[in-house]
Known about the structure:
The chain is an alpha+beta fold. It has helices spanning 2-8, 60-74, 113-126, 154-163, and strands at 13-17, 31-33, 47-49, 78-79, 86-90, 96-102, 105-110, 129-134, 137-138, 141-146, 148-152, 183-184, 190-191. Helix content is 23%, strand content 27%.
Amino acid sequence: MISLAAQHRWKIYQLDVKSAFLNGFLEEEIYVEQPLGYIKAENKSKVYKLKKALYGLKQASRAWNTKIDRYFQDNRFEKCPYEHTIYVKKEADGNILFACLYVDDLIFTGNNPTMFEDFKKSMVQEFEMTNIGLMVHFLGLEVMQKEGIFVSQSNYAKDILERFKMESYNPVSTPVENGLELKKSKVGNVDPTSSKA
Length: 197
């Protein structure tokens, strides 16, 4: 999705669902012991029947996924048959919106800012959301969106160096063939096989 947005020079935005797992409704009956501090002395032997999912419950992620999937389908999104976390909304006039869900983080992009605003309003009405704005961090990636999209993992690399106590080692450039010059081809792509004569 990042590659698609970069290719079309679209911006990528991010939403975060607050307490995502608490949004899902359970399909089966689940009972839990009374939590410490909430035990009623006269009913010590009784348990609570859950109406909604709780964090830590193995059914919570499925319940949340079922609810968000139903939301997308009810709002005319199509689920990608090859990647089930990507949803696409196409309009007759050629406008399109892509949404990618990773647990409780959601990124979206497309070719129409009006669709973005409608999507954000609809999501906020349905779920408690945080509008993060332009995507800056996602799944360990650092993303800069100014003139195009630049993705890096410099903080991840620094963490690895610190973990293995290698932060004071001398850096070495990535080796490349001597005299290799990358030239722009006639169709606008880089030709990695051409070299300076």
